Amino acid sequence: MFRLNLDLRLGIAYNWRNFFFGIQAQYNNFNYKNEYDKVNIYDAYARTSLGVRL
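and the corresponding structure tokens:
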């Protein structure tokens, strides 16, 4: 049987003079099935960064 596993990633960065801001996000979906079990695993996270270039 056909199973769809999903892996999405997104990253955005913005620079203004000596300052920068960034954000990254990720989402994973893993599906597995056999004759005894059905497994769905979901994983997601987001992180940000802010800084000054000297």
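(Above: one complete record from the training split.) DSSP finds no helices and three strands in the chain.
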